[in-house]
Amino acid sequence: MPQNSGVGGSRLAATVLLVRDGRQGLEVWVQERVSTMPNYPGMTVFPGGGVDRRDFALVDENEDGVEDLWSGRPLEDTADVLGVPTQQARALVFAAVRELFEETGTLLAVHRNRTTVADATPFHADRLALESHRLSLTQVLHRGKLRVHSDMLRPWARWVGTSERGNTFDNTSFLAVHPVGQEPDGRSSETDSAGWFPPSLLIDGWRTGLVRLVIPTWAQLKRLADCRTVAEALAEAEHSDMTPVVGDPVDDPRYREFFTIDRPDRI
């Protein structure tokens, strides 16, 4: 089986629930995908996307070893929590960081002195190079003397599902705290609109037909809506069950509302 394959040969993917403490409580960053996207067009989603070969890339032989680009929770421990081999665990974390940076300009990384990147604007050219596949995240980190810090990405959920186009994804979601000093911008060719919202408001918008959600996003928003603050969300993440939810869990009472409610579509 290829190293970038998940359950049943599905494509690995990673998404990030970027959260902050807002004036009215916990907020999460979401974006509405443009209608021309091949998968999940017009849906409100978390930043993320498929794992590709760049996310497995190591640095060149004449450069520093890959271990210099990883800090925080040991890779082996991360793999155990995610329930995947170490190569896949590393690629999932790197894909999450890369996709978030490409789609929002938010860079979850630390300097060699372990301080968090507080201003990502000096790396804007690297963001564009990532989007155009001219660079890998490994190369961006090496050039900027940065490291991924695995503790900045808390495992949250894992869903395996098929898009309307028939593509199957094995998606791992991570919870991440909005880094102080940075601000997501939503300037991505894949994004129609984006912003910070209370999870409960997004669920209410879905109920009234103003927000389109797929079941994994809906389920994760419902769980997040029970958290009033970032601290509560981080505590909740410690209890994440990373067993894959495969297909549509129509018989699970936790998701009954999604499959049974008669809601309008006002978009």
Automatic annotation (TrEMBL):
InterPro entries: NUDIX_hydrolase-like_dom_sf, NUDIX_hydrolase_dom, NUDT19. Residues 9-226 form the Nudix hydrolase domain. The keyword Hydrolase applies. GO terms for molecular function: hydrolase activity, acting on acid anhydrides, in phosphorus-containing anhydrides; metal ion binding. The keyword Transit peptide does not apply. Its cofactor is Mn(2+); Mg(2+). Keywords: Hydrolase, Magnesium, Manganese, Metal-binding. Gene3D superfamilies: Nucleoside Triphosphate Pyrophosphohydrolase (3.90.79.10). This is NUDIX hydrolase.
